[in-house]
Amino acid sequence: MATELNWLGHGSWSMNIDGRRVLLDPFLDDSPVASAKAEDVEAEFILLSHGHFDHAGDAAAIARRTEAMVIANFEICDWIGGQGVKNIHPMNLGGGFAFPFGHVKMTIAHHTSTLPDGSSGGNPCGFVLSLEDGNVYFACDTGLFLDMKLIGTVGLDLAVLPIGDNFTMGPDDALEAVKLLQPKRVVPVHYNTWPLIEQDPAAWAVRVKTETQAEPIVLQPGGKVVL
Q1: DSSP letters spanning the chain
Q2: Which domains are delineated in the chain?
Q3: How far apart are CA 20 and CA 53, in angstroms?
Q4: Could you tell me the pTM of the whole model?
Q5: Residues 115, 76: Cα–Cα separation, whole Å
Q6: Taking the chain, what is the end-to-end CA distance rounded to the nearest angstrom?
Q7: pLDDT tens by residue, 184-220
Q8: Average pLDDT, stretch 131-137?
Q9: Gap between the Cα atoms of 208 and 5, Å rounded
Q10: How far, in Å, CA of 104 to CA of 89, rounded?
Q11: Angular region, 29: left φ>0, alpha ψ -120 to 50, beta rest
């Protein structure tokens, strides 16, 4: 069974990995661009990169309804456990673990991480998923950093990078990230949710195609990538 990754808009993904349902950073009900609502998605596992409302906003409600395992750093797992979520798996930067759908490694990200109630969400992160169908890197919310070159040494079949600027990398730094990571394919995310992060993904894709070896894939919310 092929791995399908469905972009739900902003930084949110729903993945079908060998029959397992995995969510990443579900921000759906209050998102102006989401292709689904929280009540419409299913999950056995939920990956959370950091505590901001536009990434963790719907996680607790979905986890309570589906009994999905929440995979996040220790601070976020502690916080979400206080909201009635019993199935949690805390991790931290640099750590990895083999889950039923594949191996997850938590990578560094340069960002902040305050939870919706104002408490600390610990360190933000990205994820490298080592799957039967290939390796996927979700940079999540981050600025550019040179260690992306090390992340790319695993051999990335797909990289998912923010291009919105202001809160994360913009198009120029995201292009440099592609050069460091050297993925086979790359998908831009975290743009056009609000006017503050408006970008032209098609123009960025042209630059990726002409300046790197990666294949750019521009999706609309609800669009899919198959590994």
Answers
A1: ---EEEEEETTEEEEEETTEEEEES---TT-SS-SS-GGG---SEEE-----HHHHTTHHHHHHHH-PEEEEEHHHHHHHHTTT---EEEE-TT-EEEETTEEEEEEE--S--B-TTS-B----EEEEEEETTEEEEE--S----TTHHHHGGG--SEEEEE---SSS--HHHHHHHHHHH--SEEEEES-SSSGGG---HHHHHHHHHHHSS-EE----TT-EEE-
A2: 4-220 (3.60.15.10)
A3: 25
A4: 0.97
A5: 8
A6: 10
A7: 999 999 999 999 999 999 999 999 999 999 999 999 9
A8: 97
A9: 21
A10: 12
A11: alpha
Q: Which of 208, 187, 173 is nearest to 10 (CA)?
A: 187
Contact present, 13 and 6 (Cβ < 8 Å)? yes
Over residues 131-140, mean pLDDT: 97
Mean pLDDT for all residues in the chain: 97
What does the buried/exposed string (b/e) look like for 171-189 if buried means 16 or more CB atoms within 10 Å of the residue's CB? Answer: bebbbbbbebbbbebbbbb
Sheet with 215-216, strands from edge to edge, namely: 96-99, 102-108, 125-131, 134-138, 158-162, 185-189, 215-216
- Angstrom CA distances, 64 to 10, 17, 26, 35, 43, stand at 23, 21, 14, 21, 11
Tokens of 190: 């975290």
Which residues are 215's β-sheet partners? 185
Q: Look at residues 161, 160, 166 and name the one whose alpha carbon lies nearest to residue 197.
A: 166
pLDDT at 91 exceeding the cut of 90? yes
